[in-house]
């Protein structure tokens, strides 16, 4: 087992809220809602996570810096908060309409360089956006899959306030 931290992920104890049921600071994440994600091989006796009936890919909490360029327009910086093999969710400083095609750049820790990919905005609620990848190569998809295997799965019933 390797103990090298590869980034942060939402706290599993408080589901990223930073608080316990009695509204005190979560003892695991100390009220931040985030914990370190560590590099480790998945246990051999644990079956791989399966996507839900509604989703093609399992979603995972993360916190990665993100840059994107709206085709023919502007460049924005934001945060990738959920990632999957098929796309990601990000919080941006301004809304981008669903259907817009963008170029995404993000540092996936298991990829040797900054990952650059075309994506389409599939949904937008406030400043939170859902992107579907359009142009991943096989090595990029494997890098995302490897990174995701080390993160906490996003429950379909879990909601994150202000995300």
Short description:
The chain is mainly β and 163 residues long.
Pick out its properties.
1 helix, Thrombin, subunit H, globular, mainly beta, 8 strands, 163 residues, 2 domains, 7% helix, six-stranded antiparallel barrel, single chain, two-stranded antiparallel sheet
Describe the structure.
The chain has 2 domains: 1-44, no CATH class; 60-148, predicted glycosyltransferase like domains (Thrombin, subunit H). The chain is mainly beta. The chain contains 1 helix and 8 strands, in the order E-E-E-E-E-E-E-E-H. Residues 39-52 and 156-163 have low confidence and may be disordered. The N and C termini lie far apart (32 Å).
Determine the CATH topology of the largest domain: Thrombin, subunit H
Roughly what fraction of the amino acids lie in strands?
A: 35-45%
Number of helices: 1
In total, the number of strands is 8
Helix residue percentage: under 10%
Radius of gyration from CA coordinates? 16 Å
Shape: globular
Topology (elements, then pairings):
Elements: E1 5-10, E2 34-38, E3 60-70, E4 75-84, E5 87-91, E6 101-106, E7 115-125, E8 128-133, H1 138-148
Antiparallel strand pairs: 1-2, 3-4, 3-6, 4-5, 5-8, 6-7, 7-8
């Amino acid at each position: 087992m390797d103990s090298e931290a590869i980034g942060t992920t939402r706290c599993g104890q408080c589901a990223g809220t930073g608080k316990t049921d009695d509204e005190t600071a979560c003892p695991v994440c100390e009220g931040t809602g985030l914990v370190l994600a560590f590099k480790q091989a998945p246990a051999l006796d644990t079956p791989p996570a399966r996507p839900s009936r509604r989703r093609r890919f399992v979603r995972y909490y993360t916190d990665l810096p993100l840059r994107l360029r709206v085709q023919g327009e502007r460049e924005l910086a934001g945060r990738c908060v959920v990632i999957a093999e098929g796309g990601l969710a990000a919080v941006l400083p301004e809304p981008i309409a669903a259907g817009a095609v963008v170029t995404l750049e993000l540092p996936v820790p298991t990829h040797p360089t900054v990952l650059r990919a075309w994506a389409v905005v599939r949904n937008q609620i406030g400043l939170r956006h859902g992107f579907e990848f359009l142009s991943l190569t096989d090595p990029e998809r494997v890098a995302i899959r490897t990174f995701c295997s080390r993160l906490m799965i996003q429950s379909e019933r879990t909601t994150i306030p202000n995300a």
